[in-house]
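Materials and Methods. Structural model of Thioredoxin domain-containing protein. The 704-residue sequence of Thioredoxin domain-containing protein from Hibiscus sabdariffa was retrieved and submitted for structure prediction as follows.
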Amino acid sequence: MSHLGGKTVPELDRDFDKLADQLRDSLCYDDNKPDFRELDLGSPVSPLRTGQQGLTTTTTTTTTTTTTSSSSSSSRSVSGRNSSNATARRSESGMNSHSGELSGSSETSPTASTGNIKPGQIRSKSNTAATHPLIYSGQSAVNSPPLNVLPTGNICPSGKVIKTGMAMNRSSRTDVLGSGSGNYGHGSIMRGGGVGTVPVTAFKSGAFEPSNTFGNRGNASDLMRKTMGNSEPEEFKRVANEMYKKGHFFEALSLYDKAIALSPGNAAYRSNRAAALTALGRVGEAVKECEEAVRLDPNYGRAHQRLASLLLRVGHVENARKHLCFPGQPQDSTELPKLQAVERHLNKCTDARRIRDWRSALREADDAIAAGADFSPQLFMCRVEALLKLHQLDDAESNLSVVPKLEQCTNSSQIKFFGMLAEAYLYFVQAQMEMALGRFDNAVTAAEKAGQIDPRNVEVSVLLSNVRLVARARARGNDLFKSERFTEACSAYGDGLRLDPSNSVLYCNRAACWFKLGRWESSVEDCDQALSIQPNYIKALLRRAASNSKLERWAEAVRDYEVLRRELPDDNDVAESLFHAQVALKKSHGEEVYNMKFGGEVEEISSLEQFRAAISLPGISVVHFKMASNLQCKQISPFVDALCGRYPSINFLKVDINESPVIANAENVRNVPTFKIYKNSSRVKELVCPTREMLEHSVRHYSF
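The predicted structure was written out as tokens:
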């Protein structure tokens, strides 16, 4: 039998076991001390605390790298408090910590814990694991130990405890203290642990194996791949916490799911999963997870606090207060002021909406969102409603696209906003929005959903009735218009407007009827009403421009057609209407207009008189000064022909400076190709040897 230092190997093993027991018994624990501080995001994961509650941090300088290294809070030396004091503190708390619930407070859950498990330890899935004493792993989540050192608490072959920072320069196999699972008991020596070169962590069978999960070592994919072969929920949770800290929220969520699948009754796993969902922006799912955690463990303070924070974000103030002020738990000094601010602005918003002060309602809704209710669909919908009532339809429509999507929470079905059930209010505003946009069938559907959710609410009932009547009036007006019964169609649209006097679509439809009846003044008036509600309403602009043309109000017609030209740059009919309105405007001012044309080919100019007459035509003239022998001119000429067809309202001209030197001298042309843009005989732009992109950009710009 082999001997080492005068003792047999079995005897040496027994000495090691005694030493491990002495080390374990001398450690001072505090059951109410959470494993980690909570991140600002409501994270289940954050760095370990250091140097608190009677445990001190050992700091030494390595002899091999001359680098200072701090040991982890899970690898601490005894600070003088004995185990009896720790026991007294445990009995005072009356509760055990959730292992892996990473929090800055000391809330705990008695029902989800299995045995007297101490912070910093590695827990296994089974309840029997809690009957065996565990030891600290020696790992640090804050400052990773340097290479070539053993974490504090491991045992080297000499039987001495190696503290963090001590050099390990042995080339032979190293021995690691086992964690107690598999075939090894606590304090057993595991051969070839490999800790002389890399940090170690518990893995699979419970043995400490080389790890690259802390700090910046390794990558998430390697860690995920290794963890997938494990069957311990605590291991999934531990790695999920690491993934969360590194910002790999999808991976963390997947690992929490696996931990929950193995231990579905663990409230801490549910709470941690809620934090990962929150980080991914899936707030509604996070609320449900926290609600499930509280259901599993009604005394789990951390889950109550996290749920309160989430409920505040979705605007459920009363429910948030119930969980924030949970009996037996200290009030959160950060969340309570936020709750009070949200509640104050929400009350003011309700009052402003009641008296139809929409500007104040909009301001208070914004303030409530800024105060903390940043994921409340109802407050965002209140913004949409206020903008709609203020006739800012474009802004209302853009705000509708950013309303948070939130599934109904378990305990939120009876929560009210502005006197109606919260979910009904969403459909209530949506119905108004659909009506304003002319989607009457969609409006009826949304109003009916609001009525189904909150059938007793007076506001909802009135809206539903009005929406149905307006949709019916609009449908009847459309049928009459198609039958060319324009007078009756006007009456039908008028019936709808009496119920919904801010409906731009009904005004525009009635304007079309007035136009057909030759009542162009009435058509302009209804178009004005529609455009006061929806300023960029294309159909209303077209009908007003056409009506003003009939009334020979050319300046007003040109103004509307210019707006339409910017909105519809490829619409040839709009371009031609603008051209003819511009010509008519010049004639109305007594100006002589000849050689008038719209579109066609690039006109060649050969005399100075012809040139001056051409650039005085209404609208924009683009003149291409060229030479027949110049290669660049030959290359760009086909592109100018294409622009002539693409922008038919613009006069395109070409001048050969060799054949017409008088024009070239008068316009001071020295290089070709040169392009000059004129408006009403005045030059507004000159481009010398431009690129095709530059030329078209300038043509498009001045065509408006």
